[in-house]
Amino acid sequence: MLKLLKYEFYNMFRNKWIVFYFLFFLILTASLFYFAKEPAKVVSTLLQIVILVVPLISLILGTIFMYDSRNFIELLLSQPIDRKKIYISKYLGTTISLSVGFILGVLIPYLYVLKNPDVKGEHILYFSLIISGAFMTFIFTAFAFFISTFFEDRVKGFGASILLWLYVTLIYDGIILFIIIYFREYPLEKPVLILSMLNPVDIARIFVILKLDMAALLGYTGTIFKQFFDTKLGTMTSLSVMVLWIVIPLITGLVKFSKKIFKQEVKMKKRIFVITMAISFSASGGITQEEIDSNPILKGKMLAKKCSWCHDINKNLVAPPFKVILERYKSVPENTLRKQFFEVIKNGSKGRWKEWMKENLKIKMGRLDSMYMPPQKEYYNDEEINLILDWLFSLKK
Ligand code: HEC
Question: The pTM is what?
Fold first, then answer.
């Protein structure tokens, strides 16, 4: 389990997304402090952004990671490892890395500003903002994992994630507004109180707002919350509701994952490719679709993203690095080798690297001798395999 977790962390920090996420909050918080020196003011503005961005990014990245690592998950499932452990380590790897990115991003500017003796610290308030952001990360990643376990089809999974986000951030507010206007004659406190608990984002917002002395920001649900509970009880209640919001989707996803029969991904590669391209545009270093289309090597490189769950170019992950593979076969003529690799990618490979893996792989998960490369023909057609091979052989030069 620890090894799995270590691997997940390693993978997460290899991911440029986390760095962007961290930088986003760092720059945002720093500029807010630049314009408004008071921490309380900064928190109130930051909160509005955090409750939009954190759920969105947790949902999208959670969904992407889960679908992208299908292949790797299938490899793990061929090992004598408990499925629950796979799911939990993946979950912890994702949530902890995202939270660390978020927390460092908002914390560093605050600590910096505190060095100025004129600034009055608002530790409890700031701390609540951080807690609330971390909770939302855990909640929405749990949802993302649940969704991607539930929907076999990646496009549907993304759709569901986006819908959920729209619900918690926009549609829900509309519903509350509608209720307030339509039923203003009736006592609304209790129904609205219950409704607020049905939205993790609202609860996370209330959790912070309760500590802010700005009545204007409380909003309708917040005001009722404050009337019902004092700050302390309100904090405890919102905290427990947030814990529930982590546990429910996490357990449901876990149960579903344990029972799931992994079918190979549905053939929607073309569409998936476009979507992931649109979303991971920054992750690929800002390359446009045209550039990729006009350059077969780049195309192959993009297609080979799935391989990177197991193979790195130079580093040892759970399979031999591409450079090592090329080195081993350097005396084989490229034509012959091309045929061999074509076959490998299409139908998988087992046993050729057994000794090498035994000696060189630090991450020894399960029985190494049962590690193999699963067939990739479900993911790529012949033309795409050839593009990958173009890229692979370009590494030789
Ligand atoms: C789930 C993990 C996994 C994925 C994904 C994966 N591989 Fe592999 N690959 C392996 C393992 C494990 C081996 C060693 C197999 C063996 O011992 O024969 C291997 C071996 C290879 C070899 C060497 C085969 C030989 O003839 O010696 C090549 C080439 C290769 N992989 C290319 C790829 C490419 C290209 C992709 C992406 C399209 C890919 N792999 C995706 C795990 C993976």
Answer: 0.64
